[in-house]
Amino acid sequence: MSDVAIQVRDVTKKYDNRVILDAIGLDVQEAETLVILGGSGSGKSTLLRLMIGNIIPDAGTILSLGKDLCAMTPRQLADYRRSIGVLFQSGALFNSMTVFDNVALPIREHTDVPEETISIMVKIKLELVGLRQHADKMPSELSGGMKKRAGLARALALDPKVLFYDEPSAGLDPVTSAEIDQLIIDLNEKLGVTTVVVTHEMDSAFRIADRMVLLDRGKFIVSGSPDEMRNSKDPLVRQFVHGLTEGPLTDRRRAGGYESDLLAEDI
Amino acid sequence: MNLITRPFILIGDAVIQWLELIGGAGYLFVDAARSVHVALFGKRGRRLGWDSLWAQMVRVGVRSIPIVSLVVFCIGAILAFQMAPILRDYGALERVADIIAVAMFRELGPIMSAIVLTGFAGASIAAEIGTMVVSEEIEALEAQAISPIRFLVVPRILSTTAMMVCLAVIGDIMGVTGGMLVSRGFLGIGMLQYVHHTFDNIKMQDFITGLVKAGCFGTIISTLACHLGLGVTGGAQGVGVATTRTVVLTIVALILVDLMFTGVFYFLGW
Ligand SMILES: Nc1ncnc2c1ncn2[C@@H]1O[C@H](COP(=O)(O)OP(=O)(O)O)[C@@H](O)[C@H]1O
Ligand SMILES: [Mg+2]
User: In Å, how far from its chain's centre is CA B151?
Assistant: First the structure.
């Protein structure tokens, strides 16, 4: 059971000639939990968007669940998206609908099951994330943690094979954040879904990861188990993992050409 | 940029911006038109449902009825006052009714209602969709293989277009009423006489061309608002910028399209 679920090969992505991802490669094993670490603006969300087919790379290929994301017809892309689930950074619930309708939406859209069955399916998903009592609330009535749970229930609606999480603990208090982490672990174990988590929170990353990779300036620096990361001698990894104020990351910022910035004529 | 090239560059920029706007909105409109049949007659889970369309119409349109009524009523009254001295000189004071009827049905009813609706519906659609972009809701729809165009744009275009036609009819009636009350109260023209003149001179064509225009205005308002809303970048501030741009650009676009229509109708002899 160690087939590759997602293969990223030499993928480059630019925005306005700024290279965000630089010929990166990555394998996600089936049923594992892979954590992609990186500072803000390092391109984590961009990588995630590439893997769910919302944007296409400027170079390279992405094979996900055996299909080439860059060479898909719109119909194939739609089929692919039905087999994945995504939890966005803010939960991305539809604010005009109740929690129930949010979760029911993909089921109504993509299946022909009758409304009574949908109701049961939705309740099962809400129970999985511990929100069954809140089915009739509007998203604006939910706390941050509950919004993420509801978003997760919606991502689970069509029984995805791969689950993507963008910063699942961003903006949450430590306890809620730990609860969400536990949920991620449980879902991965109970449902056997391949899990890809993008985050910069180290505590959370070490709790959930089977394997981690560190993204920096558009490249992967290291990849390894949580223990390997923790004990790494690489100064950059050490600074990131332990949150040190001295190291290559801060040196780089300090050496960021302050002088030439001040004297620049044009910005 | 020196003093000579500057105006050309500014004009060029403006032209490019408008071409981009027309291209983008046109593209969106074609996409929406392609998925209308799924939205209306597709399978149960994908269909919009008449109640949700109706809800959109109420949300967008009903709130603007009082303002449309007030604005067009006043325009009718103003026209009556302004035309009166000239027509009296020609000894044809009672023809105030004819002028107001034609002006209202062909022109002022639709365009004034459209401008008011731009403030109500255009701004709220752009803000709503822009907020959805910022909160990743649009991306979430795409990630679930649900077309944002079918799901969000189509119902807004349909309901705004339908509502705009209704508003134009209301505007027509209110405008004529405004003229009538002024004529009755200050110009000494009887109600019955006024109504007779209105119906003697108004042709079905005047009414229909007005409504056709109104329908197009509704489509323009909603398509531009959706297009600019979907193009939001840069967080909450971007939503504000898009909302303002929507109102300004839509009003300009409405007037230009109105001019085009009127020219075409004139040369066709309608
Ligand atoms: N649509 C876009 N257009 C232009 N630049 C973008 C766009 N999306 C992201 N970027 C840029 O790409 C970089 C990486 O963004 P992102 O992937 O969101 O980073 P992260 O999620 O790691 O914080 C940022 O510098 C951001 O400004
Ligand atoms: Mg991000």
Answer: 22
B259/A contact by beta carbon, under 8 A: no
Distance from the Cα of A94 to chain B's closest Cα (Å) equals 6
What is the sign of the dihedral through the CA atoms of A191, A196, A202 and A206? positive
The mean pLDDT value for B152-168 works out to 94
The reply to whether A71 and A166 lie within a common domain is yes
Report yes or no on A100 lying in a domain: yes
Residue type, A31: A
Distance CA B198, CA B192 (A): 10
Q: Which residue on chain B is closest to A83 by alpha carbon?
A: B144
From the list B135, B142, B144, the residue facing A90 with the nearest CB is B135
- Pocket residues for ligand 1 (CB within 6 Å)? A 15, 20, 38, 40-46
Successive 10-residue mean pLDDT values, chain A, 267 residues = 82 91 90 90 91 92 89 90 91 91 92 92 92 92 91 92 92 89 91 92 90 87 84 83 80 67 56
Does B141 score more than 90 pLDDT? yes
User: What range does the domain containing A113 cover?
Assistant: 92-159
Q: Which of A35, A36, A37, A46 should be mutated for ligand 1, with most atoms under 8 A from CB?
A: A46
Nearest-atom number in ligand 1 for the CA of A46 is 17
**Interchain CB contact of B10 with A (< 8 Å):** no
The verdict on A115 and A78 lying in the same domain is: no
Please state, in angstroms and rounded to a whole number, the distance separating the CA atoms of residues A95 and B132. 9
Q: Tell me, what's the pLDDT at A104? A: 94
**Cβ-contact B9, B1 below 8 angstroms:** yes
Residue at A145 is within a domain: yes
Indicate yes or no: CB of B143 within 8 angstroms of CB of A106: no
ipTM: 0.86
Distance between A140 CA and the closest CA of chain B, angstroms: 13
> Over chain B, what is the mean pLDDT?
91
User: Interhelix angle for B235-268 vs B123-134, to 10°?
Assistant: 140
Q: Which residues pair with A215 in a beta bridge?
A: A38, A220
pTM (predicted TM-score) = 0.88
Counted domains in chain A? 2
**CATH code of residue A44:** 3.40.50.300
The answer to the question of residue A261 being in a domain is no
Domain residue ranges in chain B:
5-268
